[in-house]
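haha ok so turns out i had the wrong file open the whole time. this is the CORRECT one, sorry everyone. sequence first:
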Amino acid sequence: MSEEFLYIDTPTALIEFSDSLRGSPWLCVDTEFMREKTYYPQLCLIQVANDKSIACIDPLTIDDLTPLLDVLYDPSITKVFHAAKQDLEILYHLRGSVPVPLFDTQVAAALLFHNDQIGYAKLVEQLLGIRLDKAHTRTDWSLRPLDAGQLRYAADDVRYLRDVYRKQLDELQRQGRLAWLDEDFKHLSDASLYAPQPEQTWQRVKETRRLKGVQLAVLRALSAWRERRAMDADKPRRWILRDEILAELSRAMPDDLSALARIRGVEDNTVKRRGDELLQVIAQARNTPPEDWPAFESRTILTPEQDALVDLMMAVVRMRAREHGLGAAMLATRHDLERLAQGNQDTPALHGWRRALIGNDLQALVDGQRWLGVEQGVPTMRST
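then structure:
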């Protein structure tokens, strides 16, 4: 029988449990949330475990989570997550910062030769030989009461995370690679990843690749306007305006309410409530000077020399991947190498644990400090 867990739904119980966590070297953390009808994720459950206890904490019945947050933000305690970004986004919106230090078992799994972006259930099965119940993957966590099966499913998300973390930590220390993850975890703890950035959202709008020039300036302005309206109303972006309508408004750039009303998909209610505001946003964006127009990143054509360099780097990637039992794509893709050949340092291969396995070799090859030779039929990296 699996270990029992606590269901905490009162302020007094939360204080008692939070006090029991103090002094833990690590805590496993997970969240259940809903965001189908909101802009911000609606926190519905927090699961926390240390080596002694497991709890499902109900934030819908407890107004003040401060006792728990004080422990989670204790810098002497490592917070363990799996695929941490969504959980960290929620915590960021609760407290305006991210709890550190942290450890992400999905990131660690890639370094320990599991599939990149491996899911929690698959990782538990591979490491612990346990198959998790998937019956509640589509649960509406905002509904109350939660039944015993739902709570046990939620508790399992931290119950087995403890053993996954222990196994990974032992293996990373055995291999001397624990420090290789420092940069990855530092990146995850960067608060700017979780702060809304309305001016950057245009790049994620669908059906906009045919837009160009000033149309993209209009798209950027309209997308930022939509983002702010969604934030203010705490409603999904699509409830404000759908992507295809943003794209069509950016293409047509209507200059009066009559033209706006003729845009396919623009409802009469939108014209009445937001028409003047939309026209003002479009008009201002149309006056953006050409040097300030945004542009999608274009894929520059490689020179013959750069193409040959990419081939050499690809050979090095395959060689290192075989040595470490990894798929080559987990170390670097050809697109990563093309960017590096063109002088772009913003590639995963040059950061985090990948830099130790492959990035230093690639950079040395580009800089002419090392070259790829052959010894007894085997490719070998040599210093110049």
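The first helix runs from residue 11 to 21.
again sry for the mixup
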